[in-house]
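Help needed: design a sequence for this.
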């Protein structure tokens, strides 16, 4: 393996990247050997060849070959990825040239593709770009050598990867979003119970207000140039619980407009929580002006102990954690070894964002990283197939407690990390994983008008729904919207 930085690495603004720096809990020491390779036969031709076949001199069949993999990961994430592929490189003799780009990853990837010099494999965080590359026939259709039946069994029907019937993406690392943080000990002291249905969730909020215990919800979404994404997660999670999967997918493809009864209903349900009197701490002003890393500060109360919360529930993805607690932010700068006493699973816990309509089960919203393939050489196939196996992320799971998109990842790999154990529990009880809809939509919509629309909608306290929905629909590229 070797690492190459063809361009300067610039710190990214993606919150998931930042969160891994702040909140991941290492499962094992960083200098210990991690990861593994799949047992053979794997069911993948080139991967089996790479792991079992040799040349006349006894060296691995693909030994000495080079496969370039461009990623946006840098710093600790890059170290984790390198450690994850090290055992595979040793077993196969394939040199994986990791090209770490950082913030400009997608811009420079686009430049390389247009120049006809793309990497062999590239990681992407927002599948909208994958759709564009597929439409331009820049990606390898992996249907021939990634068995469709096995792919769906490993990644589920909601997995990203298919574009117009072609398999052009391999789901890799997943961030579970259908989760709510709450002060466990304070809940128990107040006699509150974790809600398991939408009606119970709404009733709990009303009870907290009636008891004079502050606001039920901690919500905020200020995040510089990407402000608004928190709100889109809420809309997506609610929509998943009120429509069938095919309707959700039609919405992500522009076939169901935002200004439709289905999507409007999702906005109405979210608005009932966001804008009801005393429901969200600080109201619309707090929501739009408070950095996402400080959303939960009022949950810890004026004394910072989380025993007398000013707000009680925070809907956020499972990468969130102790690195964002106010005591950690206050102490870690001067004390690198500082450990917060407000542990996940003890003082603060997480519950599944409950279903709304029983007909649509227990869906789980997630986002994550996907690998695209630009070259069809046998050694490239072998590396891509490795990424499609649970072992393709095993080392990272062991080092940092991340979650695999592969549903057949052994549960014991997640032991020792609250976040991943909780993710495994939620996935195991779900009726399917569904990818973040905004990340699939064309960039002018998903990370454009949808984000800004949520900010405008919040600023108006939800009174401008008609205008907001119309403005988001207007941003759809004419050749993609129906």
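Sure. Designed sequence:
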């Amino acid at each position: 393996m070797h690492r190459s930085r063809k361009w300067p690495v610039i710190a990214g603004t993606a919150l998931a990247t930042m969160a891994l720096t702040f909140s991941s809990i290492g499962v094992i020491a960083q200098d210990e050997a991690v990861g593994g390779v799949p047992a053979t036969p794997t069911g993948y031709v080139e991967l089996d060849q790479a792991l079992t076949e040799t040349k006349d001199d006894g060296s691995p069949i693909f030994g000495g070959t080079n496969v370039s993999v461009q990623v946006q990961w840098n710093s600790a994430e890059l170290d984790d990825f390198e450690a994850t592929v090290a055992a595979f490189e040793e077993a196969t003799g394939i040199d994986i040239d990791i090209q770490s780009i950082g913030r400009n990853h997608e811009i420079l990837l686009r430049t390389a593709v247009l120049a006809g010099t793309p990497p062999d494999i590239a990681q992407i965080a927002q599948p909208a770009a994958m759709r564009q590359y597929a439409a331009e026939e820049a990606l390898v259709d992996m249907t021939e050598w990634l068995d469709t039946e096995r792919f769906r069994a490993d990644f589920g029907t909601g997995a990203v990867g298919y574009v117009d019937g072609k398999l052009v993406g391999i789901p890799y690392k997943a961030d579970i979003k259908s989760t709510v943080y709450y002060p466990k000990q304070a809940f128990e002291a107040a006699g509150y119970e974790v809600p398991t249905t939408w009606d119970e969730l709404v009733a709990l909020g009303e009870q907290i207000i009636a008891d004079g215990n502050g606001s039920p919800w901690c919500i905020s979404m200020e995040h510089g140039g990407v402000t608004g994404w928190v709100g889109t997660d809420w809309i997506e999670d609610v929509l998943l619980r009120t429509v069938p999967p095919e309707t959700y997918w039609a919405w992500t493809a522009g076939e169901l407009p935002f200004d439709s009864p289905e999507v409007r209903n999702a906005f109405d349900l979210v608005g009932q929580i966001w804008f009801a009197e005393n429901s969200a701490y600080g109201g619309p002003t707090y929501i739009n002006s408070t950095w996402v890393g400080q959303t939960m500060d009022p949950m810890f109360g004026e004394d910072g102990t989380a025993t007398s919360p000013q707000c009680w529930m925070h809907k956020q993805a499972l990468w969130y954690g102790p690195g964002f607690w106010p005591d950690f932010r206050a102490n870690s700068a001067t004390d690198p070894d500082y450990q917060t006493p407000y542990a996940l699973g003890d003082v603060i816990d997480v519950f599944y964002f409950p279903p709304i309509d029983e007909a649509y089960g227990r869906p789980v919203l997630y986002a994550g990283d996907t690998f695209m393939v630009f070259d069809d050489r046998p050694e490239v196939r072998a590396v891509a197939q490795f990424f499609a196996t649970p072992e393709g992320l095993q080392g990272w799971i062991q080092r940092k407690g991340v979650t695999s998109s592969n549903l057949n990842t052994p549960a014991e790999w997640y032991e020792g990390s609250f976040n991943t154990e909780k993710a495994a529990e939620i996935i195991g009880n779900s009726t399917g994983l569904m990818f973040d809809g905004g990340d699939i939509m064309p960039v002018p919509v998903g990370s454009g008008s949808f984000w800004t629309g949520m900010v405008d909608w919040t600023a108006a306290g939800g009174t401008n729904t008609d205008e907001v929905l119309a403005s988001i629909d207007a941003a759809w590229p004419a050749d993609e919207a129906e």
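The chain has 19 helices and 14 strands.
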